[in-house]
Design a protein that fits this description.
The complex is a heterotetramer, with two copies of chain A and two copies of chain B. By secondary structure, chain A is an alpha+beta fold. Chain A contains 17 helices and 22 strands. Chain A has an eight-stranded antiparallel beta sheet with strand order 13-12-9-10-11-14-21-19, sandwiched between helices. In chain A, strands 3-2-1-4-5 form a five-stranded parallel beta sheet, with helices on both faces. Chain A has a three-stranded antiparallel beta sheet with strand order 7-6-8. In chain A, a hairpin with a 2-residue loop joins β6 and β7 (about 165-170). By secondary structure, chain B is an all-beta fold. Classes of the chains: A alpha+beta, B mainly beta. The interface of B and D includes residues 43, 45, 47 and 48 of B.
Chain lengths: ~500, ~170, ~500, ~170
């Protein structure tokens, strides 16, 4: 393994490129036409174009990625998360092409990627699962009967799903058929697989997941848990480790279950077993994510273990360099996901030019970003701009550092959830560790951005107009100089 | 030197009137008197995508503020203390806000694909009723009627790819 | 304690401001006329002007700082490092004014600030010191005799010195009087105290120092060591923890000696006891720095303890929240100091506009910077731009991460030691941990920057000229728009 | 479009001659042929302190490069891979380099204070001999003669404060 193709984009591609460089490996970025010159392409040693902006013609196109690997002389492929990371056929194709797949065996991906097969595997391994139907939803009469058996409220979930796509909550029997249809349509669009099934909706559960690492020689360890309960649109926006209500006994039980689930599918490389944890301390297998997780930095911050570096080592066939006893959790880490979206409009994704971007810094602060000022946030992909994480010796310190870091963050252009995230961190229920998957709906429904410094902001806006030597428009082309924004802003020129 | 800037934030009109003498600033923001000292420093200004971006630092009431300001033709974005303030400026600031009232014109919030049209031309709809489902940035989003009224025109069909800002459906209020 | 005046500038003032904010304290920055709007002034809640650019009229002026504290309503003063941090009279004046001094007792500063008194105190506490004269150098005949007794090569050191100022190496008796004169003159200028003394010059010693923390209730702990052997002009440029040759027994012995020295002067708050360590494993007390150290981040990275936060707690009278057994060293951290200086010209300090500045990021990377693009690096102060540090589970990983981070760093305008630092990290002797205070002279004398990408750089220079829509000059004034640099660059316009 | 830029790095003259067709670049850098693809992206350009600063990204020989380039009237600074390349440009690039030869004119490398003058007018000095001690940025720095010769003029005295670039001592080579 000498040269790694990074089959992804954005912050995770930047992060993988850094790990490759630190490991002395060359790396190759891929870019759709929407991403030429994007930060992830400049973080790697090489760049290969893989197609037009739409993901299915570029980052979701196995043939384009394999050709990129061939053309660039790569001998390994890291899929990151999302896109083809959990596509068993792609994993197989990579290995068939004689390349190293930096991820789990294709069969493990296939089993865990099918939620129904995953539930069956977990149950067979003695791992508790959420009550639900064990077969795909079929004709409507049978589904209605299944739903009664599962009980309302329930969830319709895509068998091939993930990240909240193809998922619908159903509180009353009357909503069932519309929810099935919407979920199936979304699932078909997202995963080319319209199978859906039913699962009991637990009330106010915590989302707690266990990070596992397994090598090719049969060794497997866990790296503790992450709590990722604070979600909107069924997608995580705040993650932390450890879980605020974790106990040694519960961690022992959950991690034992997680390792059992991983072993049941012959797991190798990094993976995450997700559970729901109810108020009584019972937990239920939800699914296994057979790839690096978005929120892996919080685990890295509390364990000191570089998960991507371990992925590279495991893929090279090296044994794990440490045992379970060597894994120590120190302090507390919290991550927030900065999205281009409008929290005042149902978290509607936003796009367009990123006019200004300033990442925060400071002791314990880690930023994983895939953006730069002046770039356009494409409409074609997930609108996450960056992950901002803080480590502290205790949870209160981590929160205080992260809250201060958000105050130093600048992201102008698209709408962002920056101020919303700050208010999550400020919320007394969050500070008390009282989190569950309904946290946002319960505490922050109808959130409006507070405007404590509106007058100061207006003053800043006015002062910005009082500088005469403003920059002219800059363009990368050789056309005549554009009219300056200053001229176009002439309507509200200074009085004298 | 004096300067006056008419801004609007949401429904709130805010006129900023300042007298600037070197780094000393006096005047009013809305109905509040303001006294401030402009501080130098901050990254150099630049232009991108039709906006001028500047760092603005000043001290006011003993406190130091550092803002990043992006000026576009019709609006000014200000990042301050981890929050973004979006001001309408110029003519846009003087337009009477129709926000909240609803116009009956349903536009695509961003480029995307129309997944489903949920109403027919001529149908009566109520404020809040789902009318069209659009998929953009990997999420299905349901757009709802912003008025009670009658569907006057449906400009798109399921499967269409649309640009941001394009009118999808027009509803005659009433 | 509610509002802290930060009596410093640059990166350390930014770092202290962050610690105050995370601790829920307000903070006040001070600024000379050269620093109005500098990053450290914008990192704080408030800013007070304290005088003209020259340090003795601003950051070294106790009256100006006390007046700033009064005017801003501050109730505590953090001195940072340098400037008045080790000025016992200032510490006393702060306390006399009814403010909390965030540092050690004035008497401890006074004793340790006088190198001769410090040596006496260390010897009395049973701590081994470097052989030398125990009294200030007097008439030349006696000094020559003292020098013979100490033995050549020797060092002339300022009694009030620090940071290499007022220090000269003497290899032959003939150089002695010139060295004494130069050292005394430099010491008089820097410290208003021309006393100098002689110390044996150890051959190829390592500089190893122990971080201590002591509260007001008699508890004291150490946080392990830092090795800071890589120096130029007697100033550290690379620091790491742990020391590559440290053993548990040696750490036990050195930290016991360090705590004994601290207790001997009734030490409270954060301090550092510096030792020289010879090849045989013997160590000698060098001096105690009675303040936060520039290189404190490496200790924070391996212990997880926030030294500035602890300083604030101790100053408030709180007991240490942990015992020696709670202090664990995990992994390895290395810091480099990025200076505006020319390594090809004897590390001559450099100044002027910082045209571009980009800090690196990534897992394990911490940057403490006090600069921003567009600011002018003043000629009036120490030319350190930033500290760039990397943590890794082991030394090799820390080096690899830090080396990659330096490759991502951009600092254009003044000369910098960026490429020199990278070559220190690349050097086989550094990688082998074979460091001593003569490392730079032995391995990197006559260093010239390698030019591996000269042709690519020339290509970039040419491409930069092919963009037409360049920004016009920007100014903060209301004067007519300046001629654009583009116009002034007309002589080397494009051909067509 | 074609462009030619004469650069000098130290004593090495480097002429860059390029033909640019969209993002395709061909030509020579010094005596080496070059073929590259310009990449978009990077932060917007800005101007500060008389320099234009741009991020330049390109791929060449299969490798991606990201440089930050600051253009000043007589020189171009390029940050690439953690190293800084300083090119003389324009007329400055065409001047025959006198570097290394020495001129006998000792100038202050930066603003500072003269601590000591170590020679007298009329004295003979040797290349490398200390002639003046200056304190700047908290460090004493000793300036040495860059030629063998005779001290023709001493323009300053101990205690003087001097600006950067000011002539301190002139030595007639010989």
């Amino acid at each position: 393994m000498r040269r790694v193709l990074i089959a992804n984009r954005g912050e995770i591609a930047v992060r993988i490129a850094r790990a490759c460089r630190a490991a002395g490996l060359e790396c190759v970025a891929v870019a759709s036409d929407a991403d030429l010159g994007a930060p992830h392409t400049l973080a790697a040693d090489r760049m290969v174009r893989i197609g037009p902006a739409p993901a299915r013609e570029s980052y979701l196109d196995p043939a384009a990625l394999l050709e990129a690997a061939r053309a660039s002389g790569a001998d390994a492929v890291h899929p990151g998360y999302g896109f083809l990371a959990e596509n068993a056929a792609f994993a197989r194709a990579v290995e068939t092409a004689g390349l190293v797949w930096i991820g789990p065996p294709a069969d493990a991906i296939a089993t865990m990627g099918d939620k129904l097969a995953a539930r069956a595997a977990a149950m067979a391994a003695g791992v508790p699962v959420v009550p639900g139907t064990e077969t795909a939803a079929g004709d409507s009469a049978r589904v209605a009967a299944d739903a009664e058996r599962v009980g309302y409220p329930l969830l319709v979930k895509a068998a091939a799903g993930g990240g909240g796509k193809g998922m619908r909550i159903v509180r009353h029997p009357g909503e069932l058929s519309a929810a099935l249809e919407a979920a199936a349509r979304e699932a078909a669009g997202a995963f080319a697989d319209d199978r859906v099934y039913l699962e009991r909706l637990l009330e106010r559960p915590r989302h707690v997941e266990i990070q596992v690492l397994a090598d090719r020689h049969g060794a497997a360890v866990h790296l503790g848990e992450r709590e990722c309960s604070v979600q909107r649109r069924h997608q995580k926006i705040v993650e932390e480790s450890p879980c605020p209500v974790m106990t040694p006994a519960l961690r022992e039980a959950m991690s034992t279950a997680a390792l059992a689930a991983a072993r049941a599918v012959g797991y190798v490389n990094a993976g995450t077993v997700e559970f729901l944890l109810d108020a009584s301390g019972r937990f239920y297998f939800l699914e296994m994510n057979t790839r690096l997780q978005v929120e892996h930095p919080v685990t890295e911050l509390v364990t000191g273990i570089d998960l991507v570096a371990e992925q590279l080592r495991i893929a090279r066939g090296e044994p794990l360099g440490f045992s379970q006893a060597d894994v120590r959790l120190a302090g507390h880490a919290i991550e927030v996901r900065l999205y281009a979206e409008d929290p005042q409009a149902g978290f509607l994704p936003s796009a367009g030019p990123l006019l200004a971007w300033q990442a925060p810094a400071g002791p314990g602060i880690r930023v994983d970003a895939g953006v730069a000022a002046g770039m356009t946030i494409p409409v074609d992909y997930d609108p996450m701009l960056a992950k901002i994480a803080a480590w502290g010796p205790d949870r209160a310190t981590a929160i205080a550092r992260l809250r201060a870091a958000l105050g130093d963050t600048v992201a102008l252009g698209p709408y962002t959830n920056l101020a919303f995230l700050a208010d999550v961190l400020e919320h007394p229920a969050f500070r008390a560790g009282e989190t569950h998957t309904g946290f946002v709906d319960e505490h922050l429904a109808g959130w409006r951005q507070p405007l404590p410094d509106l007058h100061e902001a207006a003053l800043a806006a006015a002062l910005a107009g009082t500088t005469t030597g403003v920059p002219a428009a800059a363009s990368g082309s050789l056309e005549p100089v554009l009219p300056t924004p200053w001229e176009r802003l002439g309507r509200w020129r200074l009085g004298t | 030197m004096s300067t006056t800037l008419e801004l609007r934030h949401g429904d709130e009109a805010l006129t900023v009137a300042l007298t600037i003498d070197g780094e000393r600033i006096r005047g009013t923001v809305g109905d509040r008197p303001v006294e401030a000292e402009r501080l130098s420093g901050g990254a150099p200004p630049y232009a991108t995508a039709g906006a001028v971006v500047q760092e603005i630092a000043f001290a006011s009431n003993g406190r130091t503020h550092r803002a990043v300001v992006a000026r576009q033709p019709d609006r000014i974005l200000v990042a301050l203390g981890g929050r973004t303030y979006v001001f309408a400026a110029g003519d846009a600031a003087r337009e009477v806000s129709a926000a909240g009232a609803g116009t009956g014109t349903i536009v695509a919030p961003m480029p995307g694909k129309v997944v489903a049209v949920l109403v027919e031309a001529g149908a009566r709809v109520e404020h809040g009723q789902p009318v069209v489902v659009i998929e953009a940035m990997k999420m299905e989003t349901t757009l709802v009627a912003d008025v009670d009224g009658e569907v006057a025109r449906i400009a798109i069909a399921a499967g269409d790819t649309v640009d941001g800002g394009v009118v999808l459906i027009e509803i005659t209020p009433g």
